[in-house]
Q: What sequence folds into this?
């Protein structure tokens, strides 16, 4: 007996190309759900590779406006546009990405009897913790959702607290994943002791705390080298700090790389440095690094600790000296680095995007039945 394909409507209110962790995840996730027919609402321009993951791409035309005096009028206009798309597609279910942002709010106000699965990504949770208005929006979306998906128990608990524990029974943890079949482990063998070639990749902002890695290099006993890959509002500040510390020969900055290019470069490094000091929804880049055989030194956050456990080396979040000690210890112990490489590869195998897709598909079938 053939099961009818699930007709899903989803979207992210950004330019439709894999330019951030959430966008890359969405591209991989719906490609890993072949038993679905997914319509994606996004922004132009639409990347050619990106659009291949979805049955249909529909550009949104409503002009975006941030939280503030014009936000309510913006949501009303966006809601009318989304309602038109719902009438056209008649989905079995709606996947509201970013629990609490404007597009999810528009979905909830037009869904009627169509079940909604809200999928949390992290930034909307941080916004709700900072702003009463953002928290009210998150609560409205949560109240209208049949199920709420978070990638870690730590993020689910934060959502539970923000919603006054009223929707605990709707929360489901589905870990994220990557396309493990595309990852390639380094061919050259690990070298002995000595300075490490380190890499950090991600958005350059205060929460990602790349400054911790830069400051740590000024405190290490070994002259490790660090390559920082990414864009963000703190890029100029980080470059200036590098000069102040006399590290211009050891810290190098490169702009954001498409994932295919990043994955080509990862195997050339000795270890990956993860520096987020606040909320991290999941940290896909950690699994990307491990899948390429890189030992990971990570800030010891609850959600990250659950994902990595003993397969990585923890240090105190936001503490450059703690990170410096961890890096020097790794550089001195060749056998430990070998063991961490094996543990990294084993841990990465737990997070295949096909598993994420299967679990989300099963949840969607449950709520639609």
A:
């Amino acid at each position: 007996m053939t099961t009818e394909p699930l007709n899903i409507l989803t979207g992210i209110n950004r330019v439709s190309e894999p330019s951030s962790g959430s966008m890359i995840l969405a591209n991989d996730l719906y490609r890993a759900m072949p038993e679905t027919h997914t319509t994606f609402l996004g922004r132009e321009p639409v990347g050619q590779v990106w659009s291949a993951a979805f049955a249909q791409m529909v550009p949104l035309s409503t002009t975006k406006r941030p939280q503030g005096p014009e936000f309510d009028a913006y949501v009303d206009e966006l809601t009318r546009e989304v309602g038109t798309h719902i009438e056209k597609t008649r989905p079995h279910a709606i996947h509201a990405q970013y629990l609490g942002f404007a597009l999810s709010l528009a979905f909830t106000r037009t869904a009627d009897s169509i079940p909604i699965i809200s999928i949390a990504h992290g930034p909307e949770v941080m916004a709700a913790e900072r702003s009463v208005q953002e928290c009210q929006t998150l609560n409205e979306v949560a109240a209208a959702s049949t199920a709420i998906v978070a990638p870690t128990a730590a993020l689910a608990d934060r959502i539970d607290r923000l919603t006054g524990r009223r929707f605990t029974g709707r929360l489901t943890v589905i870990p994220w994943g990557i396309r493990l079949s595309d990852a390639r482990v380094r061919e050259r063998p690990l070298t002995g002791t000595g300075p490490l070639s380190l890499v950090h990749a991600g958005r350059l902002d205060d929460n990602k705390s790349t400054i911790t890695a830069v400051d740590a290099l000024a405190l290490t006993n070994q002259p490790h080298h660090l390559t920082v890959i990414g864009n963000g509002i703190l890029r100029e500040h980080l470059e200036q700090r590098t000069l102040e510390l006399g590290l211009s020969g050891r810290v190098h900055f490169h702009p954001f790389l498409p994932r295919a290019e990043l994955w080509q470069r990862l195997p050339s490094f000795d270890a990956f440095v993860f520096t987020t000091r606040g909320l991290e929804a999941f940290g896909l880049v950690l699994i990307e690094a491990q899948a390429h055989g890189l030992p990971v030194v990570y800030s010891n956050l609850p959600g990250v600790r659950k994902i990595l456990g003993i397969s990585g080396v923890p240090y105190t979040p936001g503490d450059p000296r703690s990170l410096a000690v961890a890096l020097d210890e790794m550089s001195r112990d060749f056998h430990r680095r070998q063991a961490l490489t094996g543990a990294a590869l084993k841990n990465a195998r737990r997070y295949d995007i096909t598993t994420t897709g299967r679990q989300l598909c099963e949840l969607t079938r449950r709520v639609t039945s």
Notes: The first helix runs from residue 21 to 31. The mean pLDDT is 92. The chain has two domains: 6-177+352-368, 180-348. The CA atoms of residues 128 and 134 lie 5 Å apart.
